[in-house]
Amino acid sequence: MPSRRVSYDLAEVPLAAGEVAIVGAGPGDPGLLTLRALSLLEQADCLVFDRLVSREVLALARPKARRFYVGKASRCHALTQDETNALLVRLAEEGRRVVRLKGGDPYIFGRGGEEAQALIEHGVDFRVVPGITSAQGCAAYGGFPLTHRDYAQSVTFVTGHCKGDGDLALNWAALASPNQTTVFYMGLANAEMISRQLQDHGLSAGHPVALVERGTTPEQRQVITSLGDLVETIAREGLKPPTLIVVGEVVRLADTLAQPAPREATFVEGETLELARERVAL
């Protein structure tokens, strides 16, 4: 299979009729969108978007662009994944210029790979635009790095969500290795299992944990706790999805490296790419 052409020209080939762009919308702050994502948003006839795509990001699209919500929450899906795949194919076959917006990065727990496979099976042209994944955004805004020479020489992104019922089928021994950072996406419902398994495989009850709710947004809330107190902390603080669970010694740096909370965005619906760039000072 020939490799795809890589272009560094920001004035890239326009989104064509019948083409789908699978675009990472980042973790919430519209200032974290890539320039390419903004450009494609401005061109789209249709937006197909997830629950975690912020309203400020959606406001950057053209006002006349049709919007299709396909968000998923625990046991509550607007559409099944197969239905979402079929929607993308149908819109493309109708000749629409489609932007499929996904929170974070589409290829990190975003099921973007499944959607790309469906488009290929139906002969639909597509492109993929990466985004800043939640772990990167939440860590930076939470005041700690994911890696640090003194604390963590590796970082692992893990799904904390079971497929169906039953335990998480993870390599707990590897995840409990010292000198690394482990980030659990969608892990609140399985916090007791995460806490127990990591302690059973060698991490101490005092091992630091950061819980970051709605990271990079004005509603961001962060709580520092430990593995032993993880479940109690979640219940006491009333934390809700989307909340990342970050396990690692790097969390101890949160007090010294913290930065101001994100400010409320002031984007205007249908704002041009040029004005959006000025507003977010890209």
Automatic annotation (TrEMBL):
Pathway(s) of this molecule: Porphyrin-containing compound metabolism; siroheme biosynthesis; precorrin-2 from uroporphyrinogen III: step 1/1; Cofactor biosynthesis; adenosylcobalamin biosynthesis; precorrin-2 from uroporphyrinogen III: step 1/1
Molecular function in Gene Ontology: lyase activity; oxidoreductase activity; uroporphyrin-III C-methyltransferase activity
GO BP, sorted A to Z: cobalamin biosynthetic process; methylation; siroheme biosynthetic process
Residues covered by the Tetrapyrrole methylase domain: 20-230
Gene3D superfamilies the record matches: Cobalt-precorrin-4 Transmethylase, Domain 1, Methyltransferase, Cobalt-precorrin-4 Transmethylase, Domain 2
SUPFAM superfamilies in alphabetical order: Tetrapyrrole methylase
The EC number(s) this enzyme carries: 2.1.1.107
UniProt enzyme class: transferase
UniProt keyword annotations, A-Z: Cobalamin biosynthesis, Lyase, Methyltransferase, Multifunctional enzyme, Oxidoreductase, Porphyrin biosynthesis, S-adenosyl-L-methionine, Transferase
Family according to the record: Belongs to the precorrin methyltransferase family.
PANTHER family for the chain: SIROHEME SYNTHASE, SIROHEME SYNTHASE-RELATED
Name this protein carries in UniProt: uroporphyrinogen-III C-methyltransferase
Highest classification ranks of the organism: Bacteria, Pseudomonadati, Pseudomonadota, Gammaproteobacteria, Oceanospirillales
